[in-house]
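Hey, I'm writing a tutorial for new members on how sequence and structure tokens pair up, and I'd like a real worked example in the thread rather than a made-up one. If someone can provide the structure for the chain below, I'll link this post from the tutorial.
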Amino acid sequence: MNLKILLPSKQLFLLFLYILVFFFSVTKTNAQCAGKDNSITVCDIPNPSSKSINLFNLLGAHTNGGIWKDNLKSGGLNLFTGILNAQVIRTSGVYTYTYTVDNGSGCKDSATISVTIGAYSGITSPNVSVCSDNLNFNLFHAFDGNYLNPQSGGKWIDNNNTNALTGNLLNAEIAGVGSYSFTYTVPAIGTCPAQSSNTYVTIYPAPNPGIAANLLLCNTDNLALYSNLNLKDKLTGEDPNGTWAESSTNELSSRFDSIVDVQHIYNTFGAGVYNFSYSVLPTNPICDIKTSVVSIIIEELLDFTGANLVINSDICENEIGTARYKAVLNQGSKEIPNGSYYVTYEIAGISSTVTNTSVADFSNGVLVFDINRIYFPQVDNYNVSIKKVVKTGSFGACNNIIGTLSDVLHVYPLPRINNATLAIDPVCKGFGATVKISGDTNLTDGNYSVVYDLSGSNSAVAQRTVCAVTNGFGSFIIPANLIPKVGDCKILNTNITNLTTGCTNTSNLSKAFIIKALPEVPNLTLDIKDVCQNQPISVVLAGLGTLTNVILNFNLTGSNSATNQTVTVPVDKGNANFTIPAVLLANAGITAFVINDLIDNAKGCAAIISNGTKSFTINAIPNVIVSNLNFCKNENKTVANLLPNGSKFQWFDSLTSTTILGSSTLLASKNYYVKEVNATTGCESGRAVVNVTLNEVQTPILIQDGQNFCGLDKPTLQSLTANTLTNGTITWFDAAANGAKLPPTELLKEGFTYYGFDFSNTTNCYSNALAVTVSLTNCILPNKLFIPDGFSPNGDTVNETFKIPNIEFLFPDYSLEIYNRYGNLMYTGNKNKPNWDGKNSDSKIAIDGFAPNGIYFYIINYNKDNKSPEQGRLYLNR
């Protein structure tokens, strides 16, 4: 029979009853060594009796000394005592325990006890507090630690449907601030009922220090913009009334001060990370103090201006498998602080581009890092360039100045020429032989060291020379001193080294060639005559012996310079001549003709020349410098007035004329031609053309009667100009030639001849003269002529003479007679003698020459327009 433990436990009476029932309910079978199988159900887990269930008692009769086995590893059985503690079994269920006896005396068997462990949900604490920032609060922590812990395997129920419960874990942030109820239920098993426990959880708000945003700055930024930075501006969503703290800058004056000067921080402490913490206290001690940290990060700009990168070292292709490479970066003008740096670099070859990053230390301005040889797998030119250098731990505040930091690492090929073609033209004795390499080679442009042997008519061993290669073609010269003998010779190349890369390789390339004999011209003579410029210059050669055709290579030095000029000249009975191209002889002066080589065109060898220089003179052609000329036509210029002039200049009136113009030949408006003749050399210039223009200014024209004026108007030369027709500016002179220039304000004179010349400001020429004889008598006669009635010639300069005003203009042919009272003629006058000064200049009587005071009589003969003479009297008073 089974014994059921009642829930909950009772007093001692119940315990006694339990023991009686236990002993009488055991089902016994035939006695065995290990006892009999049996079962038991334990529902009242908290009952103290559940801690000490003796499984030996459930076996019945059994043999001691056996071994217990906890088949399902419940952990509740003491395998030595057979006492089961149901309270330590954490999950309700059915567990089996086997007792095995094997005493070595024929008693060997087992018996199994089945134990059903009922549900137990535990006892919760009366008040459970949780902070709202607890995202995984274990509801099992809500059970009172003074009681037996609940079994696992139950299920939690969210009584308020907060959607914040996952298994036994409560997300307080999702549930939110408030009080909530949760139930833990362990399901029924067998005859044991299910059990449940309720717990009440109060969620208190966690303090919120906000989300901090760091301030990331480069020292090149305008830090003055942050000289009054409010740290609160770097927080989002924070609770108010928190306090600030920091440890290094002393920028905060109190816990409630949030203003800092970033410029001052940098000026005082330099670049670095400066932390400022904002702390908020909780409203309930279940929550912790929360702190946000605002970091002001100031980083130094790294400037690699002037820095250089060197990749060590270039190799030859036979070193690819063993090479080691180092990159050496030297700082430029700006100091790079010591420390660890990330260096990102790029390796670009023909076939691929690789980017990698290394960590290396800058030490005293130098950073060195290794580069794996796998990045340089073949012959190529690899451009290694640094793309980025950042100090480890940097936040990337600065865009570091990298510029162009690169170096080219060369993996050079070994020079290969065994499949090349050698070409050596036959060479004349005494000259070096040019060896040409072409065809199937891998030679790049540059210089190569070549080692060769000679055999045949000339022999030499391990001769070393330099071969220059361009576009796959190379050449070098076997010195003449190594091949002094005529005949067949052979060259064998044994080694070649690229002098740029240092890469070297063996060779077995060979070629045969011929050394030829030289022609001989010991009696050579050379003659060149002096000539004028632009005349052909002939070179005459003699003493060429039996040669039939030669190639001359010559230089010109001196006034004319030319090098390596070549001409082919036929030879007849040892003589030859040719003309030096005029383009080579443009300059006058002494020029030397120098033969460099005289080559037998039949055999290609040059003779040794001992008399191959000749100097000659090219006389200069005079250079006539002319310009067009302008003259005034009325100046009657002649050939003598043309420029240039002198005995060495000859003038002609056409380009082809042979008649030299005389110096007195009058010029016309046309072209004239001049040449210069050097009397010493006989060299003449070409004819230069001079255009002569005779500028003519039209003579001014006097309008009809334009010479007539009234003297009473006081006319001037301006008045005369007004009566003249002119195309320019008229100027008046007092003579037709060499006269004095008269001002425009000059008063006109009766009967005077003026000479007017028109003047052109464009040509600076005067016209022919306009001669004008002026008459001042063209006046209108008045009704009555004013005649003075007296005068006083007493020397006081007032009224000293008797004169009829303006009569000479009105009656130019008048005559005046003055008589005394006795009828004696005292004076006769006209326009040329108009004034009577009181002297008896025309008197026939014997007086002292001065007319006395008194009355005198005059007769005026007008002699114009039949006007009758007029008589009158005047009074003379001294």
